[in-house]
Amino acid sequence: MPKAYWIARVDVRDPEGYKGYVAAAKPAFERYKARFLARGGVAEAVEGAGRARNVIIEFASMDDARACYNSPEYQHAKSIRRQFADGEIVLVEAVES
Fold first, then answer.
1. CA distance linking residue 77 with residue 74, whole number of Å
2. Which pTM value belongs to this model?
3. How many other C-beta atoms can be found within 10 angstroms of the C-beta atom of residue 56?
4. What confidence score (pLDDT) does residue 70 get?
5. Which of 27, 35, 55, 96 has the most CB atoms in a 10 Å sphere around its CB?
6. Residue 40 region, left (φ>0) first, then alpha (ψ -120 to 50), else beta?
7. What three-state secondary structure class fits 64?
């Protein structure tokens, strides 16, 4: 079964408030053994509109990526995030090589 990834692009409006999202999301990420490959850091939009914060999170499978997103823990965290940031998350399945 191929791995899967969350690709999140976010503009944080309130950095202090966003810390509450990060803390609330942690249990969901731990439960589904998420591995952060990129979290913030330098990014360069070379085509289209960019966002200030870009995150790539690896999961063992698309089922795990989807389950994490839909988990009660993450849904609670999402409600916090929406108060302090704008963005989007896409789930992407890896290509098997």
1. 5
2. 0.93
3. 14
4. 98
5. 55
6. left
7. helix
